[in-house]
Amino acid sequence: MSKGVYICVSLTLVTLIFSGCRGGASYEKTRYLLDPAREKGAVAGEPDAVLEVRHFTIDAAFSSKGLVYRTDESQYESDFHNEFLVTPVAMIREATRNWLAQTNLFERVADPGSYVEPTFALEANVTALYGDLRDESARQAVAEIRVFFLKVRGSRDPMLLFKKTYRAKSGIDESSPTSLVAALDRCLQTILAELEADIAAKL
Question: Residue 64 burial (CB < 10 Å; 0-12/13-18/19+)?
Answer without folding.
Answer: middle
